[in-house]
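Q: Please design a sequence for this.
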């Protein structure tokens, strides 16, 4: 199994354009976190520890209620990030050959954006397992630096919604999933997952709808896992 510096470099090169968008997303989270009373250090620490924009926004919303317990925060983050179990499962047959240390190290840099990008690369014949870590490295830098800048500049920048930052990741995910659809059969799990997310949004609001979006991603992961089998 190949795990080389060249593969890492190619992944990093492909991940740089994504890092720019993720930087803007991190900037938006930093603004939200600072407006909720987080400082720069706490905001960056949260981005590094949880490393999930959707889960972090849900956690901040819970903390703002003043009634959140540590168990409520833990449960919310666990449920919203449950999709990463499915992401990891789809990558396991391809990534595990690199060995547990390299595989788990690469998964520390796993996110929605570079999972989609790596799955596309695998379908195109990518064999270098370092590609995943390569795509994740610039994205991690963009996410953490964006968070820091947003938290520091809260007094001079408008709310993230005014700049459209809240739409960047959904638009990227929609574009990548569209590129992965090659037949009518591929549309079924996408349509079911998207419908579930929309229904949950109307019934329970935006925070629970994030879980529905995770289910949609899981449906796509299951489809891809079937295609790799």
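A: Design:
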């Amino acid at each position: 199994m190949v795990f080389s510096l060249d593969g890492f470099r190619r992944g990093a090169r492909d991940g740089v354009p994504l890092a720019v968008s993720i930087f803007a997303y991190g900037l938006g989270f930093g603004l939200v976190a600072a407006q909720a009373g987080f400082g720069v250090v706490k905001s960056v620490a949260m981005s590094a520890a949880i490393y999930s924009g959707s889960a972090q926004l849900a956690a901040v919303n819970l903390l703002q209620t003043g009634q959140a317990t540590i168990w409520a925060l833990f449960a919310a983050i666990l449920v919203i990030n449950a999709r990463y179990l499915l992401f990891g499962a789809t990558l396991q047959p391809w990534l595990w050959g690199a060995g547990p240390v390299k595989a788990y190290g690469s998964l520390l840099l796993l996110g929605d954006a570079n999972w989609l990008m790596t799955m596309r690369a695998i379908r195109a014949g990518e064999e270098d397992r370092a590609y995943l870590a390569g795509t994740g490295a610039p994205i991690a830098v963009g996410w953490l630096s964006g968070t820091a800048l947003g938290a520091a500049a809260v007094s001079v920048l408008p709310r993230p919604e005014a700049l459209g930052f809240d739409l960047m990741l959904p638009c990227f995910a929609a574009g990548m999933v569209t590129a992965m659809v090659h037949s009518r059969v591929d549309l079924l799990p996408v349509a079911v997952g998207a419908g579930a997310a929309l229904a949950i949004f109307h019934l329970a609001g935006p925070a629970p709808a994030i879980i529905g979006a995770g289910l949609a991603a899981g449906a796509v992961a299951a489809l891809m896992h079937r295609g790799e089998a």
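Q: Thanks. Anything notable?
A: The radius of gyration is 18 Å. The mean pLDDT is 79.
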